[in-house]
Amino acid sequence: MKFHRAAVLGVLLWLLATGVAAQTPGVTGERILFGQSAAFGGPAAGLGMEMRRGILAAFEETNRAGGVFGRRLELRAYDDRYEPEQAIANTLRLIEDDGVFALIGAVGTPTSAAAEPIARAAGVPFIAPLSGAEFLRDPALGHVVNVRASYREETEAIVERLIADLGITRIGVLYQDDSYGRSGLAGVQQALGRRGIALAGAGSYMRNTTAVKSALLALERQRPEAIIVVGAYLPSGVFTQWARKLGVEAMILNLSFVGSDALAATLGPAGEGVYVTQVVPFPGSDALPLLAEYRKALVANDETDRPSFGSLEGYIAGRLTAAALARAGNPPTRKSFLAALIDTGSFDIGGLKLRYGPGNNRGSDRVFLTVFRDGRILPAERLAR
């Protein structure tokens, strides 16, 4: 009789748990489904592919350890080619047709600007967009979970280093003519304005093109000592190659979104001396336990994968997601997941601190510096000519 009652109680508890889970899209007794719309084709494809690799490495690491309350973390991803219209279609498909629990790893500011309002209207968490745009850091956006530093923080770091390390004040900008590029341009202008310095010049190009030569020629007429590129790796690579051919002497610096590994591969020897700010630590370093854990998880998921800044950012996003789910209760809901971030406040991801709280969805404000030397990407403490 006691066995019978225990069995009945167990069945009732299981039914209760699975019944609650069934009310939350993407959550079953066996899995939690996440969705990603990102660039897996086109001139920004490297960014999306690396972000996905990192997320999958973190998810599979969690799954090998038994998942979260026994549930596997799964990812369904669609290619938006870095185009807002396709990002909208993918986001609707992921939410309405696939019924994902949350969105993770969107790539780009214009695509995030298109997808985020859809997620907001549906009450879907929007985790770790690969964008430093300030609108995603609006305290009112409680469903947005940022991981990386903002473009404002990256541009502030670049301007500070140019002035402090080299005394350079004539600074120009090449920017992608969309919300991403204008966000970076505004960051540079604000950083310079705080120091009473005017922008030396600006040039632009259209997203998903490499039509940058005329912008380079216009910038060169202003004689900048440094040019900050706010773009993706392919147009930045073409811009830098033209600058080398034409004998442009200005230093060239990029924001993290450019995709360092893809840019280095695109440039080859022409990349010598190019600087890139990063929003994650150097992947090959042992400065934090996170980095060895990341490299182990990356190879365990796919032994052909090699460390990169992009996949490290995705891995951090995946680790944070698993950590928040573990605090969200069993079964998790979208509301309990977001509440876990705010209530926990500070997450230690292998020594990297991410911070959240009421009105704070920013995650990290850390900015790191790297340089291309002798065909390699190296960490740098300061700028040098």
What structural keywords apply?
single chain, 385 residues, alpha/beta, Rossmann fold, 2 domains, seven-stranded mixed sheet, five-stranded parallel sheet, 12 helices
What does this entry look like structurally?
This protein is α/β, with parallel strands linked by helices. The protein has two domains: 23-149 and 286-363, Rossmann fold (3-Layer(aba) Sandwich); 151-278, Rossmann fold (3-Layer(aba) Sandwich), CATH 3.40.50. It has twelve helices and 15 strands. It has helices at residues 2-23, 45-64, 84-97, 109-122, 151-166, 179-193, 213-220, 233-245, 260-267, 289-301, 309-326, 334-344; strands spanning 31-38, 72-79, 102-104, 126-127, 144-145, 171-176, 201-205, 226-230, 251-254, 275-278, 346-349, 352-357, 360-363, 368-373, 376-379. The strands form three sheets. A seven-stranded mixed sheet has the order 7-6-8-9-10-14-15, with helices on both faces. Helix 3 (84-97) runs parallel beside helix 4 (109-122). The protein starts with a helix and ends in a 6-residue tail after the last strand.
Number of strands: 15
CATH architecture of the largest domain: 3-Layer(aba) Sandwich
Q: Identify the CATH class of the largest domain.
A: Alpha Beta
What's the tally of helices?
12
Distance between the termini: 82 Å
- Average pLDDT over all residues: 93
Shape estimate:
globular
What number of structural domains do the residues give? Answer: 2
